[in-house]
C-alpha cells in the first residue's frame, strides 16, 4: 500500500512517496525537492505541492491509498483546515485536506506537526513498542504529541500537547508568549535567552567568560553555540545547559505524574545535547515525581533525525487509514 506525505513548514515544504507495511510502519521511497514557503499564496503553494504529489504517484506501482499533511498549528484536524499558524503568514482557514483530496483523488488527513512526529516516533522510532508515550519537539519551540493507550490524543479542539505553554516560573525566558514557560526555558530561543542573562551577570561582576567575553557579543549567543561550547567543557555553557536541564526536569515531572507514560521521547536539542541536559533533569525528576510513575517511564532521545518530517507526514496517512474509512479522513 502506497502513501503520499506533504510536510508544510514555515521555511520549506516537501512531498514524499512511501510504502505502508502490514504492521503500520512506513518506508520512504522518494522525496521531491523542497519548495520554499515564503513568497507564495497558500493555494498557489498547495497547487505546486499537489503537482509534486502527482509526480510521486506516477512512480508508485499502484495508486496511493491516502495522503497525510503535517503542518504547525493551530489547525482543525477534523475539518482539515489550517488556522493562522504564526510561522505561516496568510494561511487563514485554508482547507488543506479538502484541497489535496480533490487534487489527488485520495483521502487526505491534516495533522499538527508535533502530533505527526509523535506518530512517526511511535511507529518507527524511539517509541516503538509503547502504548503510552509523549513526544517533545524541543527545537525552535517546545510542543508535545501524545500517544495514550495506543491512540493519538488530540483533545477537544486540537490543543492537546501544548506543553510549551505550561508556566514553570513567575519570570524567566519568554516562549509561547509567556515568560517563565516550559518553552521559554526549553527551546533554542530559550537557551539563547538563558545564555544572555547568565553571561551578562558574569560580565557585570567583572568576569570575562570565554563563551562571551564582552557585552557586545551577547547577541551572538545561540543554542547551537552554547551546545558546542558545553560539549567542549566550557564552564559557563555547562552551567547554562544545567539550568535548562533543571527546568526540563520540572516540566517532565509534571507530564510524568499527570499522564503516567511508558516513555518520553525528546527530539532536536535534547537528542544532540543529552549528556549536558540529562543529569540536571534526572535529579529533578527523581525528587519531584511519584515513585511508581517514575519507575514506569524512561526518557530517551528521538530515534528519527533528518527524515522525520517526511516520515511524519507519511505516518499520518498510514495511521488514519487504520482508524478511518473513505473520503476526507475526519
UniProtKB/TrEMBL annotation:
Q: Which Pfam families does UniProt cross-reference here? A: ROK
The source's domain of life comes to Bacteria
The UniProt similarity line reads: Belongs to the ROK (NagC/XylR) family.
PANTHER family assigned to the protein according to its UniProt record, in alphabetical order: BIFUNCTIONAL UDP-N-ACETYLGLUCOSAMINE 2-EPIMERASE_N-ACETYLMANNOSAMINE KINASE, ROK (REPRESSOR, ORF, KINASE) FAMILY
Protein's UniProt name: ROK family protein
What is the organism field in this record? Anaerotruncus colihominis
Amino acid at each position: 500500500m502506497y502513501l503520499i506525505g506533504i510536510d508544510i513548514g514555515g521555511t520549506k515544504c516537501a512531498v514524499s512517496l512511501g510504502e505502508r507495511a502490514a504492521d503500520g510502519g512506513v518506508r520512504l521511497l522518494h522525496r521531491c525537492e523542497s519548495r520554499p514557503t515564503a513568497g507564495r499564496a497558500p493555494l498557489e503553494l498547495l497547487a505546486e505541492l499537489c503537482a509534486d504529489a502527482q509526480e510521486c504517484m506516477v512512480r508508485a506501482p499502484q495508486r496511493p491509498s491516502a495522503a497525510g499533511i503535517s503542518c504547525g498549528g493551530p489547525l482543525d484536524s477534523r475539518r482539515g483546515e489550517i488556522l493562522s499558524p504564526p510561522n505561516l503568514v496568510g494561511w487563514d482557514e485554508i482547507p488543506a485536506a479538502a484541497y489535496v483530496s480533490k487534487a489527488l483523488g485520495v483521502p487526505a488527513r491534516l495533522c499538527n506537526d508535533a502530533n505527526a512526529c509523535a506518530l512517526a516516533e511511535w511507529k518507527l522510532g524511539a517509541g516503538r513498542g509503547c502504548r503510552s508515550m509523549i513526544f517533545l519537539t524541543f527545537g525552535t519551540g517546545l510542543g508535545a504529541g501524545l500517544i495514550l493507550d495506543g491512540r493519538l490524543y488530540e483533545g477537544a479542539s486540537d490543543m492537546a500537547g501544548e506543553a510549551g505553554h505550561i508556566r514553570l516560573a513567575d519570570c524567566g525566558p519568554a516562549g509561547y508568549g509567556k515568560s517563565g514557560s516550559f518553552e521559554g526555558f526549553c527551546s533554542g530561543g530559550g537557551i539563547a535567552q538563558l545564555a544572555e542573562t547568565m553571561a551578562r551577570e558574569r560580565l557585570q561582576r567583572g568576569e570575562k567568560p570565554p563563551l562571551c567575553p564582552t557585552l557586545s557579543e551577547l547577541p551572538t549567543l545561540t543554542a547551537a553555540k552554547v551546545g558546542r561550547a558545553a560539549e567542549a567543557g566550557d564552564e559557563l555553557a555547562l552551567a547554562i545547559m544545567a539550568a535548562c536541564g533543571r527546568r526540563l526536569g520540572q516540566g517532565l515531572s509534571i507530564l510524568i505524574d499527570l499522564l503516567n507514560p511508558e516513555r518520553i521521547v525528546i527530539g532536536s536539542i535534547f537528542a544532540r545535547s543529552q549528556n549536558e541536559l540529562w543529569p540536571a533533569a534526572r535529579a529533578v525528576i527523581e525528587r519531584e515525581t511519584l515513585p511508581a510513575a517514575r519507575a514506569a517511564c524512561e526518557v530517551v532521545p528521538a530515534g528519527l533525525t533528518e527524515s522525520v518530517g517526511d516520515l511524519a507526514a507519511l505516518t499520518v496517512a498510514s495511521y488514519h487509514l487504520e482508524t478511518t474509512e473513505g473520503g476526507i479522513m475526519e
